[in-house]
Amino acid sequence: MKKFTLCLKMSFISALCVFFYAFSNPDPLEQYAGFLQKTFTDHYDSAQESNQIKRYELNVTNNGFCRYKRYFNNGKTEYFAFKLSKFKDMDYYGNTASGKLYLHTKGDDVIVQTYKDRGGDVDSMATQIIIPLKNMEAEDLNQIRDNLEQIVKIPAQPAKEVAKVEE
Q1: Predicted pLDDT at 17
Q2: What span is annotated as the signal peptide, if there is one (predicted)?
Q3: Which residue ranges make up each domain of the chain?
């Protein structure tokens, strides 16, 4: 009977843990990054650069990076990336129909790489990234700012230690 009671207790505790885990909050960074990814995807304005840009990639990752890559018709490629926790401020120049979002960082935190350019491949750092957007209302811009500010407030996660295997 003791084994049955022990098994019953363990089953109940396991079920309780699964229940609480099901209703726990997901990682806040993933929530904010997901909102930013959806907003940037929905409002990206390729028409502002359609005569120069063949295609683009704009990603906000769950680990807190914003990556923007543009492929030009002449073969040149530009790549911009920054850690969202380095966000400082933003500006939007334009109107509700079309404009450019300037995301400023705390310092030279934006990685800029160009490939197949006439001047050669260049790696540099910048303080801002510019994203062309359309159909942006003031409320949308406020939500973008709020999400970016919430990401900055998230404490930095310590790097995971890698277990050393001794032979």
Answers
A1: 56
A2: 1-24
A3: 28-151
